[in-house]
Amino acid sequence: MNRWRAYMFPFIAILLLLGTVTACGQQATPTTGPEKGGLVVAASIAPLGDFAREVGGNRVQVEVLVPPGASPHTYELTPAQLKLLNRADVLLLNGVGLEFWQDKVLNSLDNPNLRVVILSEGLHIEQAVEEGNVGGNPHLWLDVVNAIIYVTRIRDAFAAADPQGAEVYSQNSARYIEDLKALDREIMLTVAQFPNKKFIAFHPAWIYFARRYGLEQAAVVEETPGQEPSPAQIAHIVEVARSIGAKAIFAEPQFSPKAAQVIAEESGIQVLFLNPLGEPPDYQYIPTMRHNLEQLRKAMGE
């Protein structure tokens, strides 16, 4: 036994010394921030998530809260998502009531270091009427100029949370903003050639897009998302479709197209799809907006 101890004590001493050196090395390494795997960013909807990935690159880990096919107007966060928010560094919200759960969820979190960014704050808000109540229309990102503002605010939030990455965020956002400016010009030039500037939307998501690019939303199928129109409302929309010479009525993938199909059949026109949210998890804002532009061209530009 004594001989065993004589051999083992020096060995244990070496292990302890190595452990001390390793521990000292760990103390010199930051325990938070990008070196530990990047900023953890939660984004309420896919467009905000895409902006975050474009700005953050490989310095951020982005999780989109509203899943594919779901409507942010009705989606409730899961326990797993609440757990995510308790460890996130940044939470990106659109605001204007889109995240109806905002106050309740934020008050329940135990994450004092979470940076909550309301991207629409201070921007001009169009009014929307739902079930007789007037409120703000939250779909600002569909105006590309607003999307550019969102990107700059995300850049600033990331730089505040991760100062070491500020230059990366600045370079990434500058590149992406140039792409967004090109998209804005493309949409403006394309829409300017449409002989018909009036359209029928599924719900009032496209009011900012219409204002920016010189279109007119003549009617909507569902004034309140998820609430199908009455027979009288359907008859009115059919009348509007005929009066403006509509070639199509627009539905959205996040909602049942049944009411739009009824109106299209009564009007003798087709149903096309505009997508304000795209298809996560591979969603990209610019290709999605180009897809929407092509759908509008089919209905209004031929």
Question: Which residues sit in consecutive blocks of at least 5 with pLDDT less than 50?
Answer: 1-35
Structural class: alpha/beta
Domain module count: 2
- On the 0 to 100 scale, the average pLDDT is 86
Gross morphology is globular
CATH 4th-level superfamily of the largest domain = Nitrogenase molybdenum iron protein domain
The CATH class name of the largest domain reads Alpha Beta
Strand content: 5-15%
Characterize the biggest β-sheet: 4 strands, parallel
Q: C-alpha Rg, in Å?
A: 25 Å
Please tally the β strands and state the result. 10
Please write the string of helix (H) and strand (E) elements.
HEHEHEHEEEHHEHEHEHEH
The name CATH uses for the topology of the largest domain is Rossmann fold
Number of helices: 10
Spatial strand order of the main sheet? 2-1-3-4
CATH architecture of the largest domain: 3-Layer(aba) Sandwich
Residues in helices, as a percent range: 40-55%
Terminal CA distance: 95 Å
